[in-house]
Design a protein that fits this description.
CATH architecture of the largest domain: Orthogonal Bundle
Distance between the termini: 36 Å
CATH topology of the largest domain: Triger factor/SurA peptide-binding fold
CATH class of the largest domain: Mainly Alpha
Largest sheet: 4 strands, antiparallel
Number of helices: 23
Helix content: 40-55%
């Protein structure tokens, strides 16, 4: 199966891990918590902290599948993780939006059943509400938010699976694919170690000076710029926000009302199907007999397992899961209104069945104190209002820019301060750490007299170029190492060309004597597609080459491989038959990967997103 795993490397399909990614939020490597932050929207769908958390863990898991469990996302270059997480969020939200546009739905009850079947939330094979609540609340996530996320993720999962169901593959086609994947090849090759060859070259100082004089354009410093900068930060407006009288009281009342509205009740039942009896009276006698046994001869749960005619729920002691007031029949909901946890109802008559229900559990959030929530309400108000004030100032600035105002003019008009920075090149500019700001500043057209503006998550920056210092030739003593390195690189490339020509001929010359410490000769037999004996691009070339043809290929690390496939061994029919069961999901998976890429490409055409605050 190593060959199969290698063949399936690359971007994992969303549905293959989508439900597993949700509980992984709580046991994985990263978590955002519940600090109030606006993450924006995608196609009108709100991006929550839970969405961001799941995207981070999905991206992390995918990278670890590619690079190994030891891979740490902290090793990624600045900005790359943000980009990967953003793409993951956009992808999932776009798919969800498309599914909703097609009027596809997935019930809340189904989402709850999925959660109840998750081993992480079970004790001795049964769902444990305490573990569930403790786990998600420890990560700052409300039960309803989590259930909604499972519901949406399951909808995307079903959407993609429904499309994949239209594809199938017959055994003969699958066997052809197995034949290609399990193929083995014998390879003779030479490998030129480019870095070793380069290191063995020692140019003279005279050569270096001559190269420096002839190629001075290669040894110039970078352009330096200084800027006039005006910054308007959201922090500037936080102290300006007034909390209205009665605001906290009103918000706390709304908070309590939301908790009441989101309360869920869990029920188990015993059912007798009226149609299974000669008359409704006999059906009623049957459930009455069961009712009389409960509490005297057996527990409710034992009666449900033994007598309930709802075979599905009977296997889980009659458990029907949770309802927030609209999932169960109205007769159930009405009965529950007068029951406490642990109570049994009387016999409830529906049109075609009779029931006894047990109120087993209530899932209701415990309200936090007004003092605790007051801090959150106030923080959220200040966050929202200060952001709005910053945007108002941004609008004023944009009006002044359109009127031709300079940075200094805008600062004077709005009674703000501006700064003139020291002249620095791109890499030496430290006034802002954000690479997007540096790109913006060093991308300003120096021939223009107009100031330009960039909007960040919590700051607006107006800038113009104050001065430009043109590049100049660096003295030799500052670039000596670079000069020698370039000379070695150039000479190594020339030597490689000569070596390649000789080694290509040597592949068919058994008398050739290898006399170069920078070249290795070897032969491998039974090389598989998933082999780590060669770099991946060399391995691809080996498996796309016919036998007996010498090829010359450069690896990603600049090493050169001159190789010839000497023998191709196809797997036998008996071997294919022995492994075909391992490939049962291979056909649908590969088809689904292709479909997913096509779907995402089509859906991405009309994506509208304003994701922000992804400061990961």
């Amino acid at each position: 199966m190593d060959a199969l795993r290698s063949f399936l490397s690359g971007r994992r399909l969303a549905i293959m891990g989508i439900l597993l990614a949700i509980p992984f939020v709580f046991f994985g490597s990263s978590s955002f918590g519940t600090v109030f932050t606006n993450y924006g929207k995608v196609n009108g769908l709100t991006v929550s902290a839970l969405d961001v958390n799941i995207a981070i863990n999905t991206v992390t898991s995918r990278l670890q599948q590619i690079y190994g469990e030891e891979f740490n996302i902290e090793n990624l270059e600045e900005g790359i993780l943000n980009s990967l997480v953003r793409n993951e969020i956009v992808s999932q939200k776009a798919l969800l939006y498309q599914a909703q546009q097609m009027n596809l739905v997935n019930s809340e009850d189904e989402a709850k059943r999925l959660i109840m079947s998750e081993p992480s939330f079970q004790t001795d094979g049964l769902f444990n509400q305490d573990i569930f609540e403790a786990t998600i609340r420890a990560n700052g996530i409300l039960p309803n938010e989590y259930i909604e996320n499972v519901q949406n993720s399951s909808l995307v999962n079903d959407f993609l699976l429904a499309i994949s169901d239209s594809t199938f593959q017959i055994d003969s086609e699958l066997k052809k694919q197995i034949k290609l994947i399990e193929q083995e090849r014998n390879v003779d090759f030479y490998k030129i170690d480019f870095n070793s060859l380069k290191s063995s070259i020692n140019p003279t100082l005279e050569n270096a000076l001559e190269y420096y004089e002839s190629n001075q354009i290669l040894f110039m410093d970078d352009e330096k710029r200084s800027f006039n900068l005006l910054s308007v930060s959201q922090d500037r407006f936080r102290e300006m926000v007034d909390v209205p009288d009665g605001f906290v009281d009103e918000e706390y009342d709304n908070y309590l009302n939301r908790i009441d509205a989101s309360a869920e009740r869990r029920v188990s039942h015993i059912m007798v199907e009226s149609l299974n009896y000669e008359s409704s009276e006999k059906a009623f006698d049957a459930i009455s007999s069961i009712q009389s046994k409960i509490g005297t001869e057996m527990t409710f749960e034992e009666a449900a397992e033994q007598f309930s005619e709802d075979l599905i729920s009977a296997d889980v002691q009659g458990d029907l899961g949770f309802s927030s007031g609209d999932s169960f029949p109205p007769e159930f909901e009405e009965a529950l209104n007068s029951m406490s946890v642990g109570d049994l109802s009387g016999i409830i008559e529906l049109e075609e069945s009779l029931h006894i229900i047990k109120f087993t559990e209530e899932n209701k959030e415990t309200p936090k104190s007004k003092e605790v929530m007051s801090k959150q309400f106030t923080s959220e108000l200040i966050e929202a209002e200060s952001y709005a004030l910053m945007l108002d100032t941004r609008d004023e600035i944009e009006d002044l820019l359109l009127s031709g105002y300079s940075v200094e003019g805008i600062a004077n008009d709005l009674n703000l301060q501006f700064t003139t920075t020291e002249a620095k090149n791109y890499s030496g500019f430290e006034f802002y750490d954000d690479p997007n700001v540096r790109d913006f500043l060093y991308g300003i057209d120096i021939s223009s007299d107009f100031a330009e503006i960039i909007e960040l998550d919590d700051e607006v920056i107006v800038a113009s170029v104050f001065d430009v210092i043109e590049p100049s030739i660096l003295p030799f003593d500052q670039v000596t190492d670079d000069v020698f390195d370039r000379l070695r690189e150039n000479q190594a490339n020339i030597d490689v060309i000569n070596l390649q020509e000789n080694l290509v001929l040597a592949m068919d010359d058994e008398s050739y004597v290898l006399d170069n410490n920078n070249v290795m000769k070897d032969s491998f037999i039974s090389v598989k597609r998933g082999s780590t004996l060669f770099p991946s691009n060399i391995l691809d070339e080996i498996f796309s080459s016919p036998a007996g043809i010498t090829k010359n290929v450069k690896a990603f690390n600049s090493d050169i491989y001159i190789f010839k496939v000497t023998e191709i061994t196809e797997p036998t029919d008996s071997f294919i038959d022995s492994v075909i069961s391992d490939y049962e999901d291979f056909s649908s998976t590969t088809s689904l990967v292709k479909l997913n890429l096509i779907i995402e490409k089509e859906i991405s055409k009309d994506i509208r997103d304003n994701i922000k605050n992804l400061n990961i």
